[in-house]
Amino acid sequence: MKKNLRNDLFVISKLINDKEKILDVGCGTGNLLDFLLKTKKADCRGIEISQSGVNECVKKGLSVIQGDANYDLDDYPNNAFSTVILSQTIQAMIFPDVVIKNLIRIGRRAIISFPNFGYWKVRRDLLVGGKMPKNNILPYEWFDTPNIHLCSSKDFQIFCEKNKIIIEKFICLSEKGNQMKTNYFSNLFAYQVIFCVSKKKKVDKNKLC
Amino acid sequence: MKSLILTDKFKIKNSIKLDSGEYIDSCEVAFKTFGELNKKKTNAILVCHALSGDQFCSEINPFTMKKGWWNILIGPGKVIDTNIFFVICSNVLGGCMGSTGPSSINPNTKTNYGLKFPVITISDMVKVQEKLVSALGIKKLFAVIGGSMGGMQTLEWATRFSSKVNVAIPIATSYRHSAQNIAFHEIGRQAIMADPVWNKGNYYKTKKEPKGGLSVARMIAHITYLSEHALQRKFGRNLQNSNFFSFNFDTDFQIESYLKHQGSSFVERFDANSYLYITKAMDYFDLSARNGGLSRVFKNSNVNFCFFTFTSDWLFPTSETKTIIKSLNSSNSLVSFVEVKTDKGHDAFLLEEPEFHATLKGFIEGQIGKHGI
User: Where are the domains of chain B?
Assistant: First the structure.
């Protein structure tokens, strides 16, 4: 069943419970949504910026809107989804901070995956090679990359702390796509990272009295 | 032997109550079907035509002898495949291709209705279509599809008769007519009414038609269907007949000639009073004015939507459709949306647009997989 599914997407799919209501932001050709629909009976929606992507999605019978996550997430009501997924896209957002806040507003939780810029080979490329790092998930040249807001897993953790965002789960993947144990050195050894985050629940003041 | 009947007709026995409060007796609906209805009657697609359209959406229009207005999309093996689907297309209420409209004979007075014809709305048109669909024995349409005013009817179907529709495909349309849309329509109507031949709508017995006024109305409207860029690309400042200005008011520029042709060919097939009534129906359309706004209208709808817009369409810009999508999102509806890049303006929905056609084909296939037929 895993066929066609990118490694990080398969790991993400394991985090989804049956019959969840999912929004996949930047859903591409809809492989993850299609997989969740078939294996978890999830109620799926997607946003995709490219027309060719939307094309493939609607062919699969998925409900997908052509749109730009930088601007179009504002249109969604609060808590409309149980989980909102943003895979390998946050680094290409113009306003990643606004997007992340929107994700946890729209969904009860957000699953965000991105290439870890703290990975030791990335550091080595710049430190020893003196050049902008490139690898399988960061394949672009410095002048044509859509990745304008790269961050390390540590950067992301600090962002969450500052913005009172709860990290429910932290998953690290190796270059081969295998799940790794997380520890103090994760920021150095994780090739890709997946964060499961949610907003801090407001304390009901009436209950405190 | 081939039938000599150019169009099928369906007569509604009971009188129909219109939104205006008035009634229409013995209403007739002219329609065409393509393909065959399957045994379970689950493969019907209703195609809704735009302001100047008619029931001849596929094959050859027997009146103009030209290809149907959506022949590019509908037919055997095409995007809307008549080997699979049973396509129904009816001339709208108020039209002039066989359905009851201002040029029809009022059964009560035995004369043409003229301006005695009651003012109609998009939802009146849809009420009449629903009677036709029911009479064909279809309980649930596989899909309703239409562009521009056809898109308005599609939205009306998806809200008024949502339980009778699996899939709705509104194209280059809006939930309401904007001030600018109304303004252009009003100029068109004024052009018709300023034509002395129009004679307050009583011209049917004079053997003359207000062709001058109607043709100006069509010329104005036609500009709104194209983009500035497409006009420039197609015509630029090119001269029609010579390399020099004529220094009179004959046709100098190609664009002038083109518009005049659009006007003069339109008046051959369209009734001026129908133009007044149908434009008015579009102007009255506003789903957001209904019971508590747009999101209420779509609440609990099980219809699968797929919206299309075109980047250079300034008559029904993408922002209008995005407003609908926002409401559909907040009411948890199943909605897909694509904005097609093109410089062809509003008319793009009628033209060869490979990306539009590919996505539409994909969507329909996906929905066949989902609902079965």
Answer: 8-178+287-371, 181-280
